[in-house]
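Example 3.2
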Amino acid sequence: WTYDYDSTYLGPALPVVKITVQRIGANDEAVTLIALVDSGADATILPLRVLKHINAPRVDRRRLRGAYGPSVEVNLHEVSIQLGPFKIRESIRSGGSTKYRNCPWP
């Protein structure tokens, strides 16, 4: 599986992939996004408004730490993610921020 690069980003070109996020067991509401491919990531992080839009159930709370700064407590949601022909069930960490630009959905 190969990924295109997003050259519209102001920094270096980044590998991206189109994903579809859906509540597990749901056949109706789904959101399609362009996601950054980060092969070194330990977690999948989605905008909170996506998880609210698909009514993804919160299943837990955990602490998450980035490369810098203190850890923060985040919600863990369970969703289905489709990357091209591959569909996976995933627990997703979400932060509390809703400051996302260029969101194509309400």
